[in-house]
């Protein structure tokens, strides 16, 4: 496999936390880029940015505000050599999906492609898998997982990041509640509330995988396209790391949903039961490949207006 040589490595901007070592990365959005870099085996440098510093840093490089969602967001990559004529300001690209397309274009022959051929099919698959995964965690898509996850975030962020996160997220809450209080009084209610959406994803994952293997998009394996990783698998693994950032027990509980050995009290009548959840299959595969632990070389870029 030939890979392009650049004079400067791709530089990943991630969101800082107090978690140790490779576990510092916790955000389901920045992880999409990090795990793709790891899975493609691209050498990179990295920098962790505290929440309140994201907007000033991106603005200093001429990144325009987002049209929806938070105004300035990570992940971002800094790589003037390949972004010169591609993005406003020519140096920094944001939006994990745009970054994934850019990385596939720069590294078209790595074994892992975020959007493998046939591209129209893998892009459509990404839209479906993104939707079903967001429907587990994000309130905008009726996901309830945020009630379990959001209260944990201020606890793992650096102090300035934590203050910023509580303030900005409380501002979006109808009663201006701190995200520390977004969980239900009894967390069991929140675990129960995500079950249907997790089952929907598992069934989608299984049927997509058997159709993909039958159509020859991939061979036998744990991913949406069998042995071929796609962007949806990367997002699933990103969400699993997010669960882990709330504690190993949160991850383990999530991985066990629908499994034969899951405690009976958590199950509901009539639910399908798996020997091993296909979600666990993806998690184990990412672990085996070493994609969860790989990190970039530390490096700091100055403010763009410096
Ligand atoms: N659609 C974007 C979403 C990125 C996003 O929302 N990032 C959040 C962190 S998880 C962020 O940077 N927020 C900045 C802020 O809240 O000020 C992507 O996939 O890149």
How would you describe what is shown here?
The chain has 306 residues and is of the alpha/beta class. It has 2 domains: 10-112 and 293-298, Glutaredoxin; 119-289, Glutathione S-transferase Yfyf (Class Pi), Chain A, domain 2 (Up-down Bundle). It contains 12 helices and 5 strands. Strands 4-3-1-2-5 form a 5-stranded mixed β-sheet. Helix 1 (30-40) packs parallel to helix 4 (96-106), helix 5 runs antiparallel to helix 9 and helix 5 packs parallel to helix 10. The longest helix is centred in the middle third of the chain and has 29 residues, at 187-215. The model has no long low-confidence stretch (mean pLDDT 97). It binds glutathione. Glutathione binds at residues 15, 27, 29, 51, 54, 69-70, 73-75, 95-96, 168.
Q: What share of residues is helical?
A: 40-55%
Question: Largest beta sheet, briefly?
Answer: 5 strands, mixed
Distance between the termini: 39 Å
Give the H and E element order.
Answer: EHEHEHEHHHHHHHHHE
What's the CATH first level of the largest domain?
Answer: Mainly Alpha
Please name the defining characteristics of this protein.
about 300 residues; alpha/beta; Glutaredoxin; Glutathione S-transferase Yfyf (Class Pi), Chain A, domain 2; 2 domains; five-stranded mixed sheet; about 5% strand; globular; binds glutathione
Summarize the structure.
With 306 residues, the protein is an alpha/beta fold. It folds into two domains: 10-112 and 293-298, Glutaredoxin (3-Layer(aba) Sandwich); 119-289, Glutathione S-transferase Yfyf (Class Pi), Chain A, domain 2, CATH 1.20.1050.10. The chain contains twelve helices and five strands.
